[in-house]
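Checked the freezer inventory, then went back to the computational side. Two predictions to log before the end of the day. The first one is the construct we discussed on Monday; recording sequence and tokens without edits.
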Amino acid sequence: MVFESLEPRILMSADLMPVSAGLSSSGSIYAGDSISALMQVNRQGTDAIGVPVRIQFYASTDSVLDNSDVSIGQVDVPVGQLPTGTNTVAVPLDTSTIARPGSYRLIGVVDPANTIAESDETNNRVVSNQMLDLRFVVGQIPGRAAIPSITLTDADGTRFTLRFFVEVFRPPYHLRELIAQCYAIGYLSLPLVTLTGFVTGLVFTKQSRPSLAAFGATSWLPSLITSMLLPGNCSANASASAMDGASA
């Protein structure tokens, strides 16, 4: 009787390896937006996994996971949703936990606490090639719910809002419309401005000439009228010079 040796059978240990990671949408993200990270996880081996698999994402300024990176989302995936092979898992992200706007790398980690025994514990991280472009905005964002303007009150009671300043410096910039408004409000208003300046100068002349004539300083009348019509320190200085000359 001949006995043949049995072929040894090896029970393959479980191994969870992230293959790739990315975002559910492209473009800039505003703090508080609803967005998810997508990770492809390759499950290898035949060993049973008795606990849910935790997948966690971090926002990093580089591609190295350290204490300065911020956890922005995690999910516990039931084992039944991770069959052998490659599986796609969506992880909701909370971008409000990031303190500063900017571009961040997403680092995804499978089983961050190493609660699952794996054949290789060194392949549980993946860095996304897609950057998370996070922006902070004050005021109305197109396509989003209205946000009231921020109103500030100065010590003397003056009130102003930040909405104007936000809209001025935030794209898109309508340069063609700006030029059209400058033409309509500025150039086309020239006749009205000219008429207003003429009438104002006429009234100042009628009111000021008798006072200057009493001191023999009527020659200062043009300078005085000019200083009244032109704003600024230069005008004030010209007015003072005119009055000094009149007094002399």
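The second is the one RB wanted added to the comparison set:
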Amino acid sequence: MKALILLAIFILSIFAHVEKTITISTPYAYPEGVEYDSVKGIIFASAAGYGIFNVTDEDTGAITKILNLTFPVTGAPIFGIHLYDGLLYGALNHTSPGLIVANIQNDTILYIANCTETNVGVFFNDVTVYDGKVYLTESLQGKIYQYDSVSNECVLFVEDSRFTPNGSIAGINGIDASPVAGTLIVGTSGLYGALYTVNIGTKTVTKIENITEVYGIDGIYRDADKVIVVNNPGKKVYQLSSSDNWVTAMVDRWVDINCTTVTTVAKSDDGYVVGCLNNRTAPFKIFRIWSTKADNDTDATSGSATSGSTSGSATSGSTSGAATNTSTTAAATTAGATTASTTAKSTTTGSGNSIVISFMLFLAMLVFCSV
């Protein structure tokens, strides 16, 4: 009888780490960027041509469009987004390409910073905030721009030939603070895509070695001493760690998602949220991965994997990359809200790491009860 009870506990523990899919069929609401507001407990996403929306009901897939952006950025081609301290930073591609910053507490635009003199031949893809400054990736010319809200200046920060397109429509793509203090981590697109660190002080660009299976980097999220990356078009999400301050890295675990184009990732309340662009064809999806929110198991498979390059558990050489935020208030546009109800389905699957850990716990409990 004890064995049966323990077996039941083991089976339930396997499914404690699961995936959930929120299916959104609203036209044009494809998630180019995704963020999670831990205060409000809701998911925000950006969609080129649709603006910013939040998921108001994960079970039904209902969304609410915020920031109508009728002035001055009609159409709102916003790609990567970054949420910090109540402000939403977006990579903007319009007549004034560069940065858009909005206050999500009252749905208003605070300011727009033009980072180039032309909107021809430029594509701002992703954005992050570090130590009071904003960093944006520009994918066609292979550049990183820096915006200082105190001086209200957007300037070229780093340009590198490895950041230009190489057999892909875009070069440098995702960006976030690195686990190593004073550095950024960026990824490049396509089959030859890779991960790089950028030293903010010296502007030195260094390729992270020994993770050749991780290519075609799109979204990036730094979580303490771990880095979560989205592989596009490989449809995988990887959790990476390093034991040598990100000179090299290794794969801790991964999840393979049933989506044609996975684009973006961010931390949620109990796991991560991943955006599915799906070749800009409805229905669009946002996934919760490595999460405790469960339903069933059809849209994702998980596992653990290690790179043959580095061994041992990762050690954190990091300090917080959280930015000290300052904002310059410009003409604010009050956002209207239009709600689009959609249908959704939820799917879950167990994590490979979870199964191993659960099995070990089961054996330990069995030995304990037999004593």
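For RB: The chain has two domains: 1-16+356-371, 18-350. Residues 297 and 348 are 4 Å apart (CA to CA). Let me know if you want it refolded.
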